[in-house]
Amino acid sequence: MLDPSLRLTIATPALVVVDRLAILSLRAEDESGGFGIHVGHADMVTLLSASVVRWTTPDGIAHFCAVEGGVLIVSNGVTVSIACREAVRGESLQRLEARVHEARAAQLDAMRRARVEQTRLHARAVRQMLRYLRPQPTRGVSE
What we know:
Blueprint: E1 6-11, E2 16-23, E3 25-30, E4 33-38, E5 44-48, E6 51-56, E7 62-67, E8 70-75, E9 79-83, E10 87-90, H1 93-133
Parallel strand pairs: 1-9
Antiparallel strand pairs: 1-2, 3-4, 3-6, 5-8, 6-7, 7-10, 8-9
């Protein structure tokens, strides 16, 4: 008997969020709108919008993953692979929304701290260059 499930992989540059998980169906969204994938789907490649990917496992439970864009590839009608910059997985839409907000807040905070550090280093470099370009006269040296 043929396996009636797809195999889903979702990966970011830093980690594999979902690794060859057996699923029955998947819903995603690209610029043309939402679409669904089932076993036997034609091979395809598409660019995903920043959206929530939804899938159903063989036990009937729906799962969710927020992706920040990415590429979705369907191969051989049974393998679905998603490569994206960031992915946040959640077991319900409410939890996913909270996790996305937390991840975004942490990302904004890290960016703010990096900007402050960059400004501090820039100011320090400018002060150092000014010291070399305008040397202070040394005391006790007659001119």
